[in-house]
Protein: Carboxypeptidase regulatory-like domain-containing protein
Organism: Eiseniibacteriota bacterium
Amino acid sequence: MKLLNCALVALALSGTGCGSQSSLSPQVLQVSGTVRLSDGTAVGGAEVWVDDGSNTRSSTLSDPAGRFKIVVPANGGIITLRASEVPPAGVFSVGTISGMVRVGGNPGRITIDIVLDRFDPI
């Protein structure tokens, strides 16, 4: 019994018990949320990416319910996230619908929605 109690204390101190969340590196920002149209409709399959002006692009796609999660380096500055609706394969589009949000780049987690409200004709 004493051994079991010691094991439970060690498990609690390590933070790896059931249902615990893995810890993030102190150098990253985890952004999650939903991509929506301006009328509130969730957009599945939207591409979400970090717009930092560089040629490297960290991106992800929203799930069918519009939810996304992206982990980006945190440097204490402002990070611009952009999202764009991706038309299904074989569908010709006459424009793109996109949206943008700016979030603090401090390490940790943040939840924010991206609203696609800008139409850019092709």
